[in-house]
Specification:
The complex is a heterodimer of chains A (241) and B (325). Chain A is of the alpha/beta class. Chain A is built from nine helices and eleven strands. Chain A is globular. Classes of the chains: A alpha/beta (241), B mainly alpha (325). At the A-B interface, helix 2, helix 3, helix 4 and helix 5 of A face helix 7 and helix 8 of B.
Chain lengths: 241, 325
C-alpha cells in the first residue's frame, strides 16, 4: 500500500492556541480512515488543512505526488480531493441535479456530459427521485447525501467526510455506512471525521485518535478503542484503565 | 433522449420567439410619439436590467453602480463620434470593450470584498465616475455633449422623424442579451455563477475558481450595459453627466430584475414591462403638481410587490416542483 496523502509535522497556531501540533500521518490508497477524538482535539482543524480552508503555520502536505501545502481549495479539488461540510452548504435555490452538476463540471467541459455524470452519482447516492427538487426542500438526511453526491461528482481520489453520520437516526446512519462502503468499493479513499464511535469503528480500516492537537494513538479500530490513553482522553483520569 | 430538461429549454426559446414577434408587431399601429417613447425605454431597460442580472442576479454580486458602465458607453460612442467622426456602431463596440475592461480593473480589488461591502464599493465608484465626468473639460464637463443630427441615417444611427428604428435596435439588444443569458444558463459559467451566489465556500471546494467567475460575470455584464449606454446617447442625442451617470440609473437597472425575479431568465423583461410604463405614466399624470404623488404611488407599488412576492412577480407563474410521494 502506498500513501495517497501524507502530512509532515503539520502545526497550526490560532493566536495562543496550538490547534494542531506536529501532526505526521499518512492515508493509504483505498482505505477508510477514521479521524476521531474528543471535542477540541483538532480533528476539524486537520480536516480543513487537508481540504485547503486553513494554511498551516509550519509543516507540509503531500497528495498523490504533489506538494499541496499552499494550494487553494479549488486547485486541490482539481487534483482529486473532495470534501463535505459538517454544517451542510447546499446551493439552496438550485435543484439537486444542478448542485451535483457543479461538482461534475470540474471534470467535464460540456454541461451535457456533466449532467450524465451527475445522474450516475445521484443513482449511487440514492437521490435520483429527488433530482428535480430544490435543494432547500430536502430533508436533513437527504441534504447530507447531497453533500456527498456533490463531492463524489468531482471524481475524487480522496473523499473527506466531516461528520456525515452524526445526528442521524440509527436506520439512517446504517444507510450512510453502506454508502461509505460503496464509495470505497468504487476506488475512492475515504477519511472520515466522526464523534459517534460505535458507528464508525466497524466501518473504518484504521483509526487515528487526536487529543489536544496531537496524534494520541493510531491503529486498528479494535485496538484503538481498548487503548488506555484513548479511554483516558475521552473519559478522564478517574476511568484510567 | 430529449429529457425534461431539454424540453424545458426548448420551450423557453419558443416563448422568447413568440414574445419577440409580438414586440415587433406592437408599435406598428402606434403613432403616438409619447407611447413610442415609453416603448423604447421599456425595451431598453429590459436589456439593461438583463445585463445587470448577469452579475447581480446569477452571480449574486449586487451592484448599485452600473450607471458607471452605462455612462462609459454613452460617453465612449459620443466622444468618438463628436471628436473623431467615428460612427457610433464602432463607438458602441469600443464603449462595451472599454467598460468590460474597467469592470475587470474595478473587480480586482472589489471582488475581495464580501456581501454588502461590495455593493457599497460599486455605489462609491459610480459616484467617482460622475464627479470625474463633471470636471473633465474635454468631455464637456457639466454641460455635456451634443450629438449632431443631420437627418435619418442608419450609418450615424440618428433618426428625426420616427422613433421606430431606436425601438427595433433596443428590442434587438434585449433579445441578444436574453439569448446570451439563455446560453450562459446551461454553461459552465452559468452553473459556477449560481454556485458562487449560493455558497462561496462550497463552490470553492467543488473546484470553482470564485474570483475568476465573478470577474467574468462583471465583464459580460458591463459590456452589455455600456452598449445600452451608447444606444441611450444616440436616442436622446444629448448627454451630460447628470443625464447618464447618476445613481438613479443604477437603481433603474436593478429594479426591474428585482421586481420581476432576480436571477431568472424572464425577471428583468417582466419587471421592465411593468415598472417603466408605470414610472412614465405616473410621472406624466400625477407628477408636475410639485407634491410628488407620482413617486409615492410608484414607491407604494414597489413595496406591495416586494412584500407580497419577495422572489419577484415571476414566482406567481413558475410552478414549485412537487415533492414525490
Amino acid at each position: 500500500m502506498s500513501a495517497l496523502l501524507e502530512t509532515e509535522a503539520l502545526t497550526v497556531r490560532f493566536g495562543g492556541i496550538l490547534a494542531n501540533a506536529d501532526i505526521s500521518i499518512g492515508v493509504n490508497e483505498g482505505e477508510i480512515l477514521g479521524l476521531i477524538g474528543p471535542n477540541g482535539a483538532g480533528k476539524s482543524t486537520l480536516f480543513n488543512l487537508v481540504a485547503g480552508t486553513y494554511r498551516p503555520t509550519s509543516g507540509r502536505i503531500r497528495f498523490d505526488g504533489h506538494d499541496i501545502t499552499r494550494l487553494p481549495p479549488a486547485a486541490r479539488c482539481k487534483l482529486g480531493i473532495a470534501r463535505t461540510f459538517q454544517v451542510v452548504k447546499s446551493f439552496e435555490t438550485m435543484s439537486v441535479l444542478e448542485n451535483v452538476v457543479v461538482g461534475a463540471l470540474v471534470r467535464h467541459v460540456s454541461t451535457r456530459a456533466a449532467r450524465e455524470e451527475a445522474y450516475r452519482v445521484l443513482d449511487v447516492t440514492g437521490l435520483t427521485r429527488r433530482a428535480d427538487a430544490n435543494a432547500r426542500d430536502l430533508t436533513p438526511p437527504e441534504k447530507r447525501r447531497l453533500e456527498v453526491a456533490r463531492a463524489l461528482a468531482t471524481q475524487p481520489k480522496l473523499l473527506l467526510l466531516d461528520e456525515v453520520l452524526t445526528g442521524l437516526t440509527p436506520a439512517e446512519a446504517q444507510k450512510g455506512v453502506e454508502l461509505v462502503r460503496k464509495i470505497r468499493d468504487i476506488g475512492v479513499t475515504v477519511v472520515m471525521v466522526e464523534h459517534v464511535m460505535e458507528v464508525v469503528m466497524p466501518l473504518v480500516d484504521r483509526a487515528i485518535v487526536l487529543d489536544l492537537g496531537r496524534v494520541l494513538v493510531e491503529g486498528a479500530p479494535q485496538a484503538v478503542v481498548r487503548d488506555p490513553k484513548v479511554i483516558q482522553a475521552y473519559l478522564g483520569d478517574r476511568f484510567h484503565a | 433522449m430529449a429529457s425534461a430538461f431539454e424540453l424545458r429549454r426548448r420551450n423557453q426559446l419558443i416563448i422568447a420567439a413568440a414574445v419577440v414577434a409580438v414586440m415587433i408587431a406592437l408599435p406598428l399601429g402606434i403613432k403616438d410619439v409619447y407611447i413610442q417613447n415609453i416603448l423604447v425605454l421599456t425595451v431598453m431597460y429590459a436589456a439593461l436590467s438583463q445585463s445587470w442580472n448577469i452579475l447581480s442576479g446569477y452571480c449574486g454580486q449586487i451592484s448599485l453602480g452600473h450607471a458607471l458602465y452605462f455612462g462609459i458607453g454613452a460617453y465612449a460612442s459620443t466622444l468618438l463620434f463628436v471628436k473623431f467622426g467615428i460612427i457610433p456602431w464602432f463607438g458602441m463596440a469600443a464603449g462595451g470593450i472599454f467598460a468590460a475592461a474597467i469592470a475587470l480593473i474595478v473587480g480586482w480589488p472589489c471582488f475581495r470584498l464580501g456581501g454588502h461591502y461590495f455593493t457599497i464599493a460599486t455605489i462609491v465608484l459610480a459616484e467617482i465616475g460622475l464627479i470625474l465626468f463633471l470636471n473633465w473639460s474635454y468631455a464637456g464637463e457639466a454641460s455635456g455633449l451634443q450629438i449632431p443630427v443631420s437627418g435619418d441615417s442608419w450609418t450615424t444611427f440618428t433618426f428625426l422623424r420616427s422613433k421606430l428604428p431606436y425601438y427595433y435596435f433596443a428590442l434587438g439588444l434585449a433579445a441578444v442579451v436574453w439569448l446570451v443569458t439563455y446560453f450562459i444558463e446551461d454553461s459552465k459559467w452559468g452553473y459556477y455563477w449560481r454556485a458562487v451566489r449560493e455558497n462561496t465556500l462550497a463552490a470553492q471546494s467543488l473546484g470553482v475558481q470564485v474570483f475568476r467567475s465573478k470577474m467574468a460575470a462583471a465583464a459580460v455584464s458591463a459590456f452589455f450595459t455600456a452598449i445600452g449606454g451608447s444606444f441611450y446617447a444616440q436616442f436622446v442625442s444629448y448627454i451630460d453627466p447628470d443625464s447618464v451617470m447618476v445613481f438613479q440609473f443604477s437603481l433603474l437597472m436593478a429594479l426591474p430584475a428585482v421586481i420581476g425575479g432576480i436571477g431568472t431568465l424572464w425577471g428583468p423583461a417582466v419587471g421592465a414591462a411593468i415598472l417603466i410604463p408605470l414610472t412614465e405614466l405616473t410621472r406624466s399624470y400625477m407628477g408636475g403638481g410639485g407634491k410628488g404623488f407620482d413617486l409615492i404611488f410608484y414607491g407604494a407599488v414597489i413595496m406591495i410587490i416586494a412584500l407580497a412576492r419577495p422572489e419577484g412577480l415571476l414566482s406567481l407563474v413558475t410552478r414549485t416542483r412537487p415533492a414525490p410521494p
